[in-house]
Amino acid sequence: xxxxxxxxxxxxxxxxxxxxxxxxxxxxxxxxxxxxxxxxxxxxxxxxxxxxxxxxxxxxxxxxxxxxxxxxxxxxxxxxxxxxxxxxxxxxxxxxxxxxxxxxxxxxxxxxxxxxxxxxxxxxxxxxxxxxxxxxxxxxxxxxxxxxxxxxxxxxxxxxxxxxxxxxxxxxxxxxxxxxxxxxxxxxxxxxxxxxxxxxxxxxxxxxxxxxxxxxxxxxxxxxxxxxxxxxxxxxxxxxxxxxxxxxxxxxxxxxxx
Length: 258
What we know:
mainly alpha, 10 helices, 74% helix
């Protein structure tokens, strides 16, 4: 997708090819898994006898082609969202197409809609992050976090929680993975599965809050925590936590589908 490709290009330009490879080109491995799962489900449907395409299917196909070649990532992601909704509403129940649709939609939420929401409500969301950091005994004000130890003469006494450090990004990944598990295994959403997803969300928010707190307590490692090897380690730990919570929480439902 153009939305993901745009992120890859920007990440390589900002951090170089070495760090880009380690961090899977700035796109969470969960997003790559979601894309692969959606494509596999679509291929599964393509191999089945689904009858002759309808007029609306040809229109949707043309729309999808335009979305694929539009050079603007935002426009292509928006178009893909519409296609995903169309597929879900018009495809046979529990077919590969219908199961792929929510996965596709969740990817567009992660790469575009979530960022739009963050841009619109960033002040509130970043203040919430700051309040949570304050629970660690760190002084905060709005989206400012003060250093708990002396950061030295070259640094300001506080730092700002920027949109790129919002917990919303981790929340998006948890939701995407939950959607992938539901779609890939054909699991119906239940109160239990929603609680499992909520548990994953709470866990990744806690990880991000601890990361923000680490900035305050360890200013000497600010750059490493922000975008260096520690940041990469935290990103992979976050993925591992999401996969572990969702996989074990929905183990019975997953095995039942097998």
